[in-house]
């Protein structure tokens, strides 16, 4: 049964639903990527200030992060957050056909998860909780953090290390469904794992010493065939190939894990008789345990050293993320799943289904009466989802998959819940291309049901924590027990972040030139 304050919150969300829809599309169209979400962060800061929140901009030394507060007197502090980073190479319009957003090429950023709906869903819950607190005189404080660069697990380890999650009675973490059985449910035992991300930078700053024995002493090499240091590009390629070749030997073949890489810089595009002076490659290690992350890092360090020696370079390692595995909290999962059960799973109307049928046809499939996956409109209890998730995991594996909300879970009782996003049922033998999910995440008729459901679930969870001391105490009691005494307890894992925000690397971004606003890879190059 909902309280009168919760009923107020639900009515508030129904009233502002058109705004939530418009706001979701705004962030979707910004499509800004990790560490470069300038417009998105500025939009949130402006919106929160207009709603009466005090906002710290650039929190944790991250220009596109923030921390907002609103208080209604002494009482519990409840945490929520928004993400808004997109992914390079996924620029898709909110349309039923494959096409980039106007004025851009496909290489630009686009929302895949979509974090555009994630952030606005959480924001809607925040604003509804505030409205209910005001109307019903509920004491307490709401804290809302802006979390950039989730795709590289960037901001939350930094915010955690700098104390932004301390003092919370509960943290509410929402994510659009991204794999079955985690559709409309909350995580139970098996939370996301650890992740390390780092950039290896190769620098060739003494190329003159490479061929000293063979040099004739000429101040300038007399031919393009003269001996020269291989340089940073060669170091990067040797690092890339060595790490690929040794990947099977980095970890045991059990307990799901992955290692991904992305080249950020490669020699500044020079093509002359000069060695490339700078090259950078980023690695992301997603593993169940910190020990596994440390083991892979040791191998990568050796590879980087060997590649640098062979190519006449030196190397540097710069951290992007050192993120802890997640900590379960059954009391929080129960509170949030009860809220989700009250709201009900999202439902898609005939307008949304008609749009989905258009997408089916345009993506090479056939229109069906019900184009969406059946599970999208059903709830699944946390225990049921857990049992299905565990079928493919060895008993010894405690954590699985990847997301940096896990750092929050070591500072406050944390619930992690999922709401279905629009996803098409694929006929046998057919796989829909990536643009389909991306497009459905931007079209209002298809994404709004998720955003509305998430906002209501966030609001009801927050108000339950504020109003129900017994539920709040149960969540905190479990947190203290699992950590062996709370923050600093015998089983507590301290923040791993011992680095500053990696904001000064060549992260892909939008640029303004005499040609206008464009992605760093010009749209005209793919016309």
Word description of this protein:
With 527 residues, the chain is α+β, with helices and mostly antiparallel strands. It has 2 domains: 4-192 and 326-483, Zn peptidases (Aminopeptidase); 195-323, Alpha-Beta Plaits (2-Layer Sandwich), CATH 3.30.70.360. It has 12 helices and 13 strands. The strands form 3 sheets. A 7-stranded mixed β-sheet has the order 1-2-4-3-5-11-6. Helix 3 (115-136) links the parallel strand 3 and strand 4. The chain is globular. The termini are far apart. It comes from Mesorhizobium hawassense. One of its GO terms (biological process) is folic acid catabolic process.
* Main β sheet profile: 7 strands, mixed
What structural class should be given to the helix and strand makeup? alpha+beta
Order of strands in the sheet with most strands: 1-2-4-3-5-11-6
Number of strand elements:
13
Percentage beta strand:
15-25%
Q: How do the SSEs run, as a string of H and E?
A: HHEEEHEHEEEHEEHEHHHEHHHEE
Shape: globular
CA distance, first residue to last residue: 57 Å
SS field, number of helical segments: 12
Radius of gyration computed on alpha carbons: 25 Å
Could you please say which CATH topology of the largest domain applies here? Answer: Aminopeptidase
CATH class of the largest domain: Alpha Beta
Low-pLDDT runs of 5+ residues are none
Q: Mean pLDDT, nearest integer?
A: 94
Give the proportion of residues in helices: 25-40%
Architecture (CATH level 2) name of the largest domain = 3-Layer(aba) Sandwich
- Can you identify the CATH superfamily of the largest domain? Zn peptidases
> What's the number of structural domains?
2
